[in-house]
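User: Please fill in residues for this 483-position structure.
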């Protein structure tokens, strides 16, 4: 299907319009050229050699910037889980051209048609990526999960690791769920299969404890463009499975260990928080439609119980309820956290201690956290003042908001191209936003969001409607629906 205009050029221009710099400066490129020939340091007094462990990674099918790898073993008292996080800081000195670019951009932006990386690809997909078959430096979070889901011990140290198998969510997830055969690499190694089953067991234990504490379990349906020869062929729906949950549970646990380590060391850090929802009354109203009563004061535990009941009662439409609650909760933000602060925590994760630390190739806040952890390990002063951390946190929040806007606009443009042949058809939809600009709805098959131009009176977030696709405008990214 030919596109009416150049989506690649549109994505680049959207980046510029929202304050991003999609190109790397000559200074950045010179720094990368100088790094190309560097050798990975060997193990030593402060770098453990863990290459013999059966590390593997699980990520999206197209991911090349591998930030984490995992390993596990059964030990007395529980399951030992090790999370290796790519050591980006070792290749990106503070204040260097690459670091300054990353600090200004703060995040990689995924537009569906093209990825605009925070770091040059020679770094993010090669030199600092935990690629299969190569030795890489990493920060390792070493935890022991007890049968009740608590973390009996948590240690962080530098190590040399070797990813033995790069795996995907779509390959591992259905196998863990018993819905498909094992991926080729897993089928070829009994040891790897056993290792992944043990990781899944640890993940399920962690998940049950997170649920007990009130962590919210959303089923999000995300759009994934089908691109061939630079042209949009359609849109797929990407949903959670056991593999995505495995990585999510491990990352939440690892981020908690990171946050507590920094707090116990008495140094300031950047936390990731989701505040108590301001639109809690609307969430309670949404629950009441399903004959469920939420308390007057926000409670993640009560909300989680409602969500679990809805998933059991109507799994087909649970994604619509999830999306409505996510929209009503609002986005997360980065904040300065001093060691003696009363931390706000992460409402959706029911986590009191939470930072972002496990994706330093993609997020600058994670690189900053990595440097803070390294200063603790080396018994050195913090490399950042409170004022610097506060400024970085604010900029990360602003840039993340801008990145979501770029991604949202490009997703709409891609959807407008893909749905051109479907004008006039009727779809089931859920209201996702009520703003001064209008009422927005999202259809599920294929997943796409647009403006409700007729019949918008009296609707609110979470309402389920039948809508007709009236028109699409790929240039402006418009999809217009009528009730």
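Assistant: Residues filled in for all 483 positions:
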């Amino acid at each position: 299907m030919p596109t009416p205009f150049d989506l690649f050029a549109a994505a680049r221009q959207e980046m510029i319009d929202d304050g991003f710099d999609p190109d790397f400066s000559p200074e950045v490129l010179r720094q990368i050229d100088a790094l190309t020939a560097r050798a990975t340091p060997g193990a030593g007094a402060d770098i453990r050699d863990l290459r013999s462990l059966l590390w593997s990674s699980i990520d999206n099918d197209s991911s090349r910037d591998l930030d984490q790898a995992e390993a596990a073993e059964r030990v007395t008292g529980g399951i030992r889980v090790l999370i290796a996080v790519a050591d980006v800081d070792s290749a990106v000195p503070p204040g260097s051209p690459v670091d300054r670019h990353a600090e200004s951009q703060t995040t990689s932006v995924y537009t569906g048609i093209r990825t605009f990386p925070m770091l040059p690809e020679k770094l993010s997909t090669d030199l600092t990526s935990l690629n299969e078959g190569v030795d890489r430096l990493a920060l390792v979070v070493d935890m022991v999960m007890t049968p009740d889901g608590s973390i009996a011990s948590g240690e962080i140290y530098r190590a040399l690791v070797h990813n033995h198998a790069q795996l995907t969510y779509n390959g591992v997830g259905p196998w863990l769920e018993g819905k498909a055969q094992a991926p080729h690499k897993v089928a070829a190694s009994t040891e790897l299969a056993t290792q992944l089953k043990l990781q899944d067991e640890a993940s399920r234990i962690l998940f049950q404890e997170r649920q007990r504490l009130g962590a919210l379990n959303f089923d999000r349906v995300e759009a994934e463009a089908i691109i061939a020869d630079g042209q949009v062929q359609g849109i797929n729906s990407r949903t959670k499975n056991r593999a995505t949950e495995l990585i999510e549970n491990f990352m939440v646990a690892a981020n908690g260990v990171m946050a507590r380590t920094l707090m116990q060391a008495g140094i300031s850090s950047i936390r990731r928080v989701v505040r108590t929802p301001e639109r809690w009354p609307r969430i309670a109203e949404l629950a009441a439609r399903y004959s469920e009563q939420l308390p007057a004061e926000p409670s993640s535990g009560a909300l989680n119980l409602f969500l679990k009941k809805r998933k059991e009662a109507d799994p087909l439409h649970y994604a619509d309820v999830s999306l409505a609650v996510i929209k009503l909760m609002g986005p997360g933000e980065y904040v300065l956290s001093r060691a003696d602060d009363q931390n706000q925590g992460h409402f959706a994760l029911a986590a009191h201690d939470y930072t972002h630390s496990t994706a330093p190739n993609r997020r600058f806040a994670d690189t900053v956290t990595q440097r803070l952890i390294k200063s603790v390990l080396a018994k050195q002063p913090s490399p950042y003042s409170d004022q610097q951390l506060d400024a970085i946190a604010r900029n990360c929040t602003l840039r993340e908001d801008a990145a979501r806007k770029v991604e949202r606009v490009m997703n709409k443009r891609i959807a407008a191209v893909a749905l051109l042949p479907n004008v006039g058809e009727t779809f089931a939809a859920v209201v996702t936003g009520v703003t001064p600009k209008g009422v927005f709805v999202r259809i599920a098959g294929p997943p796409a969001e647009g403006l409700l131009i007729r019949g918008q009176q009296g609707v609110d977030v979470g309402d389920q409607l039948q809508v007709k696709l009236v028109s699409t405008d790929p240039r402006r990214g418009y999809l217009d629906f009528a009730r």
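For context: Residues 7-274+331-413 form one domain.
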